[in-house]
């Protein structure tokens, strides 16, 4: 299909925006001179002589931008841009027609005068401007109540509105007018976050001031004040009432029913602002909770009230009122407020539920201001404390191993190398070796530290930097190790649900009022049996094999797993889902695991690669592997031989080998990925969503 348009045509760009979003390839034929539209050749394509025009086939065209955009939407029905049912389809068309017949028509005189394309006649411009602002106010009101212009689902009307707003923001709306339509600005930023928007329009531009004409322009040109204009903050600001009692400064979480009628001072950020005529409702966030603050009368009639925008920081004084109808059962009747730090009100427009993952990662510092993200951070903090409380109650000591090292634990291919004062060094892959060396000093030890893996993996459970809970126990058996892992997981799980179940339930979003049952004891499944379980039954879990043929074609087939295969993430999760409870997968073959793992004594007669190790991965439903652990080789002779077989320098690991040289002992340990544990606990799909600032390939900021 071929689209005939002009490069600067808002209507042509609108249709291209929709086409790109729907994945439709177009041939673009650009009109250089509008005189071409009057030629007989073009009139055959579009008798009206307008652009854009879509040539579908020879002598078969679609004209008018909305008609073209609707045709594109019908080509990609899975996008549901025309609505998902009778009512929504009607509402989408209602807004499409309003934008094309009302907004585009009434705004034209104002726009043309601003860009110098028409004579600036005030009697024409002022009605155009007033009507346009009235329409934008209606749209802003609609977007205050709904995520998108035609409701709560993205539709073609959003593409039409944002396409014309590109030019409205660029030319007509200065900061003063933009501030009057915060919901419209949020919507625009949400649409601008769609990759197809940038591909079509580029980076949005915003007018530095609202254009003025006629007498207003003449007055501005002649005006030359002898003294600087007063700074807004010097006048017309709220003034505290000295007759009121001195307020008590409190954190929101500290407010109880006993504070009813008490005057308090709260400080925080404007999480949400709702203007309801003579009232402004501010939902204040201070990190400990949320509080609805009601501002009335003179508090909102001052000039400063115009600066009450989302995410500004405030000090608010007033009287607590306990009211079950209010959010959280309480609200603050404000008698004074002070702006501490301003905001342009556009912060939350930069990150929405519709934003693509890259936009969310770039603006991660803003994402954390949201309710869901802040709840995740709270649970993360509570979870780390719960692990520490568990270990403290079991007399396990916390230590802080170094993260700059000159040795490897998990193989050289995943090391982050760096220069350490002229010597090669690495970011640690694991603190295991250092923990082992402290066992003779403290007995049982653990750490909660970052670990680093230079893996080019983009799965939902891998990061280049992650928080690692690692433990080493002295004088234990393999069964002891599994029992202690299970004890830890159950202890932390039960404690978190008991103390913070309301937050966990909110994050899970399943309406749970108590902790889902955690089946105990955990199932123990040897690796060999897991392979059999995958391959057996009427619906086996198969291994995906991809081959590239000599001609370059790619073939994919699914075959049974073989002994020695590493069960990949998807198959692993499917296996656990079928079992329906936590599973210890145990005794992996030596050739599959790290060299320092102790072998099963029952396999001493087998070739070493085929011997089973005293190892285990704990697999949890919905996530897969969360814990990996093993017994460690305790004797000097075996560990020395293993180092040589791996080609590792004994001199570099002298301090680790000395652990066996001076009183080797049976011991074992494990590592737990904190992010994966939280994903399982809270039912969150992707590990980046539970990580403060995720580090993955290609991203090391913010």
From TrEMBL:
Residues 85-212 form the GST C-terminal domain. Residues 1-80 form the GST N-terminal domain. It catalyses: tRNA(Asn) + L-asparagine + ATP = L-asparaginyl-tRNA(Asn) + AMP + diphosphate + H(+). It is found in: Cytoplasm. One of its GO terms (molecular function) is asparagine-tRNA ligase activity. Its EC number is 6.1.1.22. This is asparagine--tRNA ligase. It comes from Carpediemonas membranifera.
